[in-house]
């Protein structure tokens, strides 16, 4: 009975494969598998290239956004520059490229006169060269120190110091010493020795003379 069943199965399979539809189906399946197999190896380099191109496009898009932001920042900076360019001379007045000690002392004398103070003495620590101006490439910030000895009352001296610090030419008052003095009429008055720092830009080739100047 088992042999009959096996015989029937073999007969059924034989009849099935003899059917043209079955042969076409198998050939179609093998063809599809073969096409897929070879297509994977044929298309893979193309897919890799496409992936690289997509990544490159994304990187360039990000770079383009960054460049757009930088251009916008430059446009803003250009607008601000044009807006304040007419006031740049104030920077040169506040922090010049040389010490300009003569002009600075004239400012001190003018402020003292406006506050009705008597300048008894001005002592300058050193006299730097004014012949070489500092350029943007070799300029370094330097400070010239001088002492101003004035005679007057407390309020006058206070106003004098405030006016010095409010001057367009940057002056930094870092020390004030008070003592009692007398005027030419032998009247008692308050004396103050004020130490002033005068910042400026100095060229690397410029050297101070190392001299001390006294003015009355």
Question: Describe it for me?
Answer:
The protein is rod-shaped. Residues 206-216 have low confidence and may be disordered. It has a five-stranded antiparallel sheet with strand order 3-4-2-1-5. The protein has five helices and five strands; from the N terminus they run H-H-H-H-E-E-H-E-E-E. Strand 3 (172-182) and strand 4 form a beta hairpin. 53% of the residues lie in helices and 24% in strands. The chain has two domains: 2-62; 95-215, Ribosomal protein S6/Translation elongation factor EF1B (Alpha-Beta Plaits). The longest helix is centred in the N-terminal third of the chain and has 65 residues, at 20-84. With 216 residues, it is of the alpha+beta class.
Give a topology summary.
Blueprint: H1 2-18, H2 20-84, H3 89-94, H4 101-114, E1 118-124, E2 139-152, H5 154-165, E3 172-182, E4 188-203, E5 213-215
Q: Termini separation (Å)?
A: 142 Å
Taking the sheet with the most strands, its summary is:
5 strands, antiparallel
Query: Which class of secondary structure composition applies to the elements?
Result: alpha+beta
The CATH homology group name of the largest domain = Ribosomal protein S6/Translation elongation factor EF1B
Low-confidence stretches: 206-216
The order of strands across the largest sheet is 3-4-2-1-5
Helix-residue proportion: 40-55%
- Known CATH architecture of the largest domain: 2-Layer Sandwich
Kindly report the average pLDDT value.
Answer: 77
- 3D shape: rod-shaped
Examine the coordinates and then state which fold CATH places here, giving the name of the CATH topology of the largest domain: Alpha-Beta Plaits
Give the beta-strand count.
Answer: 5
Backbone CA Rg: 46 Å
Helix segment tally: 5
Supply the CATH class of the largest domain: Alpha Beta
Write down the secondary-structure element order. HHHHEEHEEE
**Number of domain units:** 2
